[in-house]
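Field reference: sequence -> structure
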Amino acid sequence: EGGTMKYSKIIITALSFLFLASVAKSEDDVKLRLNWMYYGSHAGFAHGFVNGIYEKYGIDLDIRSGNGSSSAHRLVANGDSDFSYGSCGAMVDLASKGAPVKSVGVIDAMGTEAVLVRPDAGVSSIQDLKGKEILTTANAGVNTFFPIVLANAGLSESDINITVVPDGALVSSYLEGSGGSVGILGGLDDKPAEIKANGGDQPVAFPYSDFGVNQVGYCVATHTDTIKNNPDLVKRFVQATMEAYAEAEANPDAAVNAMADIVGGSFAEDAGKQQAREVLDVTLGILYSNANTDKVLGLNVASDWEGMVKLMKEYNDLDAGANAADFYTNDFL
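Structure field:
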């Protein structure tokens, strides 16, 4: 009997080892594509990675920097990445043209896009930009709604000279007045802080929202095949992400420190953390749109999407038959 018990213990121990080994191997490798290089708005993702939230949900997360919102969503559409974080407007533009991507959760519930102008440029109204040069980058989500801003300000695209510069050179080109430029298209969440961190003064801002552009900000998107074939993964990723951003909302300094751990360099210095915190605070301030009355983190609010799609139909040549509800799902919240 003693021998039998000993043998049983060996079997149980072996089975326990096999079970733990299978659990260890069951983590899904997931690649998240950011819209840009790390900045403060991404601190929630970093917090989830560093503090084991994604791991808790069975996800081995690989966070990759990006080259603009459109590029990030496109990399999900072509199978390079599993999830993307980027402009919802840019995602709608791609999806309406056949890209198989859909929003599964919203982080920045409202847009922060703006025209940012150097204070020494003598521009006091957006109409003063007529004949002036503005800088942007090729795949930036901020490009999507700029034509609407111009139309609502009584200007046309031909009134403004738009110059595309390399992704990493936008702020430096702005500060130098490259090519006679007076400003850039950029987000109020990150660009003013980056400009000031590089020695510039607070820019004069013309928020898109002042010119009738009320949009859903930045969303987490994935491939429609992933939604169809691996809904459990999508649910775990979305829930981990919302838990991470909820913790970032409760303790933003911890989220900034997590990002500093990943990126290092100037991000780990006091000035870098201060800049990241300033940017993160903007994102945390727009986690919920006014229409999200129950404050459900990540919620794709129907009326917000309908308003944005209506604008895109009117000004961005979006298919008149496009249905806003086709671009998002709340099934995984």
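Note: Residues 2-25 form the longest helix (24 residues).
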